[in-house]
Amino acid sequence: MNQLVVISGCSGGGKSALLEELRVRGHAVVDEPGRRVVREQLAEGGVALPWVDMIAFASRAQDLARKDYLAAVRVPGRVFFDRGLIDAAAALEHFAQRPALRTCADSCRYHPLVFMVPPWREIFAGDPERRHGYFDAVAEFDRLMAAYRTLGYRIRLLPKLGVQARADIVLSELAS
Questions:
Q1: What is the CATH number of the domain that holds 132?
Q2: With contact defined as beta carbons under 8 Å apart, do 25 and 168 qualify?
Q3: d(C-alpha 137, C-alpha 9), whole Å
Q4: Closest of 138, 90, 86 to residue 112, by C-alpha
Q5: What residues does the NadR/Ttd14 AAA domain cover (predicted)?
Q6: How many domains does the chain have?
Q7: Helices (H), the chain
Q8: What's the predicted TM-score (pTM) here?
Q9: Nearest Cα to 132, choosing from 82, 59, 62, 57?
């Protein structure tokens, strides 16, 4: 079975903390493409930033996510993704108003079960790489839920629990 597992969902919902817990437990983890694009663009003075040029940002995130996927298929065992190609394609499709989901879905399939973190206002916080607000994050979550469902993935909505409990749920679901 496909061992490339996506953890997606609402910005500021605890994905990165969950992925870090899985990394500490010895699992291979791929960091979020969007955050890596933002760091690169800020360091270089670039404009492919979500608050400057969302289409350029989403295109770069999609390219990076595709490279991540192609590298991960060669890694033995399970690999967890902090977002993935579908997330970037959904953003590109939404903001550029051009089809992007079907293309990536046909060429890059992840594990059929996707873990989604829901909006969680109590822990949502902006930072230099996340400048959008909570309601933008909720709208993004809704688009991602629809995108993954449209592409035939099963979705496991993670409860609003601590990081260790969430990691236990993810690993337990994958073991069954």
A1: 3.40.50.300
A2: no
A3: 9
A4: 86
A5: 5-166
A6: 1
A7: 15-24, 33-44, 54-72, 85-96, 101-107, 134-150, 163-175
A8: 0.91
A9: 57
Residue 155 — φ and ψ, nearest 5°? -115, 130
Over the stretch 107-150, which tens digit does the pLDDT of each residue have? 789 999 999 999 878 767 766 666 666 778 888 899 999 999 99
Pairing between strand 28-30 and 4-9?
Answer: unpaired
Quote the Cα angle for 5-7-10, to 5°.
160
Question: Residue 130 has which token pair?
Answer: 């996340």
Neighbouring CB atoms inside 10 A of 143's CB total: 15
User: What CA–CA distance (Å, rounded) separates 90 from 95?
Assistant: 9
Measured in residues, the chain has a length of 176
The whole domain housing 46 covers: 4-175
Summarize pLDDT for 4-59 with one digit per residue, the tens.
Answer: 999 999 888 889 899 999 999 999 999 988 888 888 988 999 988 888 888 898 88
CA distance 92 to 85: 11
The one-letter code for the residue type at 101 is L
- Residue in the structure block whose two tokens are 């099963």: 154
Q: How far apart are CA 119 and CA 142, in angstroms?
A: 10
Q: Tokens 């940002």 — which residue?
A: 57
